[in-house]
Amino acid sequence: MEVVIKETYEEVSKAAAALMRHVLNAKPNAVLGLATGSTPLGLYAEMARMHREEGLDFTHVTTFNLDEYVGLPASHPQSYRTFMEKNLFQHINIQHQNTHVPSGTTGNYRAFCEWYEQRIKEVGGIDLQVLGIGSDGHIGFNEPTSSLNSRTRLKTLAEPTINDNARFFDRREDVPIYAITMGVGTILEAKQVLLVANGANKAECVAGMIEGPITAMNTASALQLHPRCTVFIDRPAASKLKMLDYYLWVQAKKPHAPY
Ligand code: PGA
Question: Which of 91, 80, 86 is nearest to 34 (CA)?
Answer without folding.
Answer: 80
